[in-house]
Amino acid sequence: MSITLILFWFLSVLALFSAAMVVASKNPVYSVLWLILVFFAISGHYLLLNAQFLAIVNIIVYAGAIMVLFLFVIMLMNLNKSNEPKRNKWLNLAGVLAGGCLLLVLVAALKNAETKATLAETGTGNIGLIENLGKALFTDYVVPFEISSVLFLSAMVGAVVLGKKESSPDTAGQSGKSSEK
Amino acid sequence: MHLLSIDWWFLLEKLVLIMVIISLSLVIAMYTTYAERKVAAWLQDRRGPNRAGPWGILQPLADGGKLFFKEEIIPLVSSKFLFILGPSLAMITALLTSAVIPWGTSLHLFGREMPLQIADVNIGILYIFGVVSLGVYGIMIGGWASNNKFSLLAAIRAASQMISYELAMGLALIAVLMLAGSLQMSVIVQNQIDHGWHVIYQPLGFVIFFICALAECNRTPFDLAEAENELNFGYHQEYSSMKLGFYLFAEYINMFISSAVMATLFFGGYDIPFVNEASWGISPNLLALIGFAVLMAKIFFFLFVFIWIRWTIPRFRYDQLMNLGWKGLIPLSLANMVLTAVVMLILKK
Amino acid sequence: MQLTQRAKHVDRHPMTWIERLYFWNILKGMLITLRHLFKRKATINFPEQKRSFSSVFRGLHVLNRDEEGRERCTACGLCAVACPAEAITMEAAERLPGEEQLYREEKYAAKYEINMLRCIFCGLCEEACPKDAIYLSQTFAPSNYSRKGFIYKKDDMLIPNPLTEPETYKKALGERPAKMIGNQ
Asked: Is the pTM of the predicted complex or chain greater than 0.90?
């Protein structure tokens, strides 16, 4: 068993277990912390695929920025075990049904996909290195890349507009700016 | 000696390097606390600690001993695990950053070439950013687990400050990366050895980076995260004993690491200024050690500037802090980036 | 209206662009602190070095003896009356036969206490004393852990006997021999 394989299994188990704990945790703050662990495990997988750039960007953007905003919201809402609302039994059942349907669709979609031919090259591929990734993004995929940047720009403009709507001009500028993140 | 297809000598070599660098950063952080007290005293015409040992050089040990023997208090209704995780995370993230900094060229020992850098990864700078962005969690988890509204608010204040200044820091760095053409730390240093220090080409970028580094380390004038007197001591209000010590200590390690990053990115890293050391014809081992000493000298200079600023400039108000970050530094660093790109394009043609 | 020439006019003009950058002002401030780095330090390393007191410094009280080693105090209570802080209490007692070498007059202070927390070290007791039995020395009250420790008893203040321990007597006398001799 090579070291890569050991790491792969370790990271996979870690990722799946943490993902399960995200759902199972009673306290939403713990859920967020487990989710951060999931991102770390996924970054580890990226590293095994020699996609260093993706791995670190996953950590910077998701674990470092988005999850912090999640934590902000959850910590300020002060959701505790004690004041968790009682859920409807039927609502639980509906949730299980919806999740099962999603699983069914995913399995159906992936069943016919050719997994053998496109097996990931652990440790040898170099498309994830920053030079190759940059070249690919700015030559082959330049149109989708630019379109997605326009999408982000519009999201930023939207955030500023929403923030400016407040009556007091001082606070409006502040919230508009910070929601750009 | 191949088991599990790992080069065990390589592993051993890296382990030794990691041990050395971590203990070095701990010792330097320890003596930065001493330097802080001494310099503060000198700037205020006092003498500073001079009782523990000659010139008070054992003072950090006395401080540490005091923190260890203090009573440890864990709030009853807080989550004990997270309460301990907070300071541990702060310490871990502070120490992790040193992994990609090139501390010198390479040593030649036992017939092996041993680079004085733990990991020369392709994405050195981004790694530093990733770890720094994780530093927020130590503060937030600690503040939340304290189960105290003041701590929570202070933690959120600190976290939003760090996130805000990370942006300007990253944008200021992009111009440097364009000059160097790589994210790899060793390549960036080599580029400076060949073409002169980046601070010559990027003075504005350096100033922005320095201001952001102050904010990232929660140093004055941006130390709102731990404003003892007017903001209720910040996120570590409920902490006592060595757990408080960890938070405070992590700040000093962060200071050391960010000084090292600044020296590496803008001041040539282990490059000896004004001379071509390769033409001296001395052994590469000695040369590596001299380079390491030069890097340390640069780092100590930055540490002194950090302390000097702390005892000169008063604290910013929170809205001033946010204004400076979002309306001042980010547009400025964007302009710096565009300007650099334009100049580079013109010069290349 | 200006009473003195020293009044400083406060400049409240809106900041110019340069001033709003703060850089120049921060630089100026940093240079000021840097200059202090090389200045002479004001601190005195206390237990090793001591600041010298002026010759009229009023510190802890000393109960005096005459040249034969007898206590001078007769417990007349004038010092207690003169004390503005009401820090002095005393109890008088009659000298018994055979105690002539201990007390100079027929009456002496059996108990003499000064509360050093109340005392303001004004020296009025010294001026009030007709027998020159109390004077203020050039030391100050050392710190203590309890309030009780600041109530000085007679034993704490009595000067050593000049006949049996002349050296400690001289030391306790301080820099005031001139006054002592003039009052015989």
From this structure: no
